Request: fold
Amino acid sequence: MPLRRVHLAALALACLWGGGAHGEPARNERVEALIAQMTLEEKVGQLNMVSFVPTHETSFEPIAKGLKDGTIGGLFNVHGLETARRMQERAGESRLKIPLFLALDVVHGYRAIFPTPLAQAASFDMEAIRRAERIAASEATADGVNMLLTPMLDVTRDARWGRVVEGVGESAFLASRIAEARVAGVQGDGLRAKDAAVACVKHFGANGAVEGGRDYTAADLSERAIRETYLPPFQAAVDAGARCMMAAFNAPDGVPSIANPRLLTDILRGEWGFGGVVMSDFEAIDELLAHGYAADQRDAARLAFAAGAEIDMQSSAYAQELPNLVRNGVVKEAALDAAVRRVLTLKAELGLFDDPMRGAGPDAPAGPPAAENMAAAQALAEQSFVLLKNEKRVLPFSPDIRKLALIGPLGNSPADTLGPWAGRGEPEETVTLKMGLERRLGPDVEVAFTPGGTTDGSRDEEIAAAVESARDADMVVLALGERFDQSGEGSSRADLELAGDQMKLATAVLALGKPTVAVIFAGRPLVLTELAAKAPAILYAWQPGSMGGTALARTLTGDVNPSGRLPMTFPRAVGQVPIHHDMRPTGRPFDPEDPYTTGYRDEAYTPLYPFGFGLGYADFSYNAPKLDRAALRDGETAVASVVVANTGKRAGTTVVQLYVRPKLARIARPAKELRGFVRVTLQPGEARTVEMAVTPETFAYWRSAQAYGATAGPVEIMTGPNAEELKSTTVDYRP
Reply:
């Protein structure tokens, strides 16, 4: 974001919330009256959030005491209307009767489970993503939850990291648009609405900058690098009105994020005008000891609080240490009051003081998710599938098939169809690929399912049985990939190949020469180089959620034309990772004829599938972009126009993408950076001119940690269907 926009955003937020310095919220009479009555322990209690899992009742006694004493201000992992009501009633028995934040990880749906966030990013459809969050929030709030620990906005370029499944992919620009959509979906038209929840954005500020693909690690980044790649989606979330920010576990500039005043106070509050609350991740304040940053829990509490963290999730460091830190003069009580004010103000914005249950009825929601919510989950799944290969038009299925062999360990697995962080989604309400195919194809087509082993391994007889099943089939579907728990937090992988003996299984089946499509269920980009060389068709299904099987069956049979595009680059080998579209070309850009350029001796330099890539059942042509002006000055807008035509025989959707590169800059720039996209649906033979705006902000960059702007000179404007197949023109920037 340019500095000009930063200042305007801060001013707008200050006006909205009556903010003063560093995002100080407007004074509320009820809040001020409460603060005036509170003991130190009660004040600190509002900053104390602890876990209570309803199925673990043995842990309730200390929770009950904390609620009665007013020393717990929020709970997470609580769900279910009866439990939520009981917790709020307990809080209402305390001296000051302050209601609770009830928070839950609602990552890709609550009852109706949508595709995983990375899969949603593949849709490039911001309205569909917003609607998914709106539905999740409405379902969660009906069950008593008032704070969703979502969205996760961690830009990342390393597919080994298990948490890419929860994220937004590799592009800071795409991530920022997703941030806007998801915050708008969760928080709705205003927090007073009973179906709106607080969006607690995570993990601020560079949690995706991992080392070796491992959780909780951090590359050593300059502030300029953090601002350029990792902070834009968080600023977009603040601009969209997000009211909670969860600090990351890691320490990308050497200072753990939960105790980093540069991030939490100077940038988040000072520059961006954030007026909401800052929360730690699970036990992150105590983990300052493991970082070697704090001497003991007292020191950890002091450092995190001084940096700008209000809510302590689970470590109880604040509850144990802050009262005495105030009594001893180490922490000023006015600073504690300011933190409590932000927490109580947010509770007031939610309407919790007027009705802790926010209109939720007396009985827990019964029965399956609403039909319209499941239909929305199905529609987004259909938009998220990415067709990677379709040799000889294997897809869609021929209408003449009478036997289909479904082979693979993920062909009939509800949990693996749902994906990780599946809220309160139920496997028994999930449509698997087998179920979807049987329902769509009907009784006249036999669907013969053979697992062929598991994702951990296969016996020879299991592979032999799969081959026999495929031998007399008209069509074969290989259901391969990852289990739901092979991606997500705590599920980093050093090897991105198909796990177990899945490639051995696929090779044996593909040797028959049958029309075959490999459907890949996964939470991350996998290395598919060997499979891509052998399989005639590959459809990347991600982990598609409750209606995944129905969506897949409709796509495979041609009822739906696949339109997803890759939000992360797919490597040829794990040794290419991290790999992403916006890499810098170096002083010796890759030249296949010159070994002394940036490349490999044993593998191609290029990705297997580039960022933004995806096929469909229609074919499209792209003309080179044209600009309506040759030169661009500050305050002006150029319009890039590109003619896109459907040259195929079916209607289809493509995603027109715009990339930029300043040819002259004071910081070496990437060879290309995504800066615009438009989904376009065209009928056979139809052509359309797609227009996208280009301003100096489109190609501006961080020249240092504080200086943002563009450099005079030529700027390459590129358009096309993905990051590799681009045509370009040039505009001359003259400030």
